[in-house]
Specification:
about 260 residues, alpha/beta, 13 helices
């Protein structure tokens, strides 16, 4: 029997799941041995990327089993149109998910494959979750630019044994790999595109204080820590979401 699709609402051309992150974690665990599917976590940068590369990226986001709002900016813009999108950041979701997986009885344990983290993050992860059945697979640099490398990673993922796959290699490489895994015929499992979630969880990267997160300023904190790497994303690319929002809103009013 086919399970009904989880509820989503369309906003700025992308679907956004209406389930809480607790419910999402429960759903992933319950269905991780059913036919293969993947989860995306769009934030403002992702929304802009989809609008700039619609033919390549829009089908990936619309083809996801779950598309979770990973941005207070996106959530706030949605609220201006009367939509209430639950916030389910990749970092928070992975913490909840791994904690719940570690609490499962031995006979119900799930196999986890994590792609991308450095060796130090792997050691910290194993120390924190000693009872998890997890494997960490390194990822080559240049995945965003090189289709051959993405294909090689996707092939490696298809060939390994896992129930839950965490793709931690950044947008849009992780989303492209998640779709490739489906194209290559993976039969079961749930893949999650979660960026730097493992680095935050293990302390390899620092999250903003909670009060900054509540104010929607986590991006500013990350920019202050890594200005050379992140300035273009946060100061050039991501702000384009406000133009997209304005144009989308005006178009709806005149349709």
């Amino acid at each position: 029997m086919t399970m009904p699709a989880p509820p989503h609402d369309d906003f700025l051309g992308l679907p956004f799941c209406l389930l809480s992150r607790q419910h999402v974690a429960q759903l992933i665990i319950a269905q991780c041995r059913t036919p293969y599917r993947y989860v995306v976590t769009p934030n403002a940068y992702h929304v802009v990327a989809v609008h700039e590369r619609p033919e390549q990226l829009r089908p990936i986001y619309r083809g996801a089993w779950l598309s979770l709002c990973d941005s207070r900016v996106v959530r706030s813009l949605a609220a201006l149109t009367g939509r209430r999108l639950p916030l389910a950041t990749g970092s928070d979701l992975v913490t909840i998910l791994l904690t719940r997986l570690a609490e499962l009885p031995a006979g119900a344990r799930k196999r986890i494959l994590i792609v991308g983290p450095e060796h130090a993050a792997e050691l910290a992860l194993r120390a924190r979750f000693r009872d998890l059945d997890l494997t960490v697979m390194p990822a080559p640099r240049g995945l965003a630019r090189r289709a051959d490398l993405r294909l090689a990673v996707a092939h490696a993922c298809v060939e390994r044994s896992w129930d839950i796959l965490l793709l931690c290699v950044g947008c849009p490489a992780q989303e492209l790999i998640a779709q490739l895994i489906a194209v290559l015929g993976r039969r079961s499992g749930v893949a999650l595109c979660v960026g730097a979630a493992i680095d935050f969880l293990t302390g390899q990267a620092t999250r903003a204080p909670l009060w900054l997160r509540w104010l929607g300023l986590e991006w500013a904190y990350r920019l202050a820590l890594e200005p050379r790497r992140l300035w273009r994303r946060y100061l050039v690319a991501s702000p384009k979401i406000f133009r997209i929002f304005l144009m989308t809103t005006l178009r709806r009013q005149f349709d």
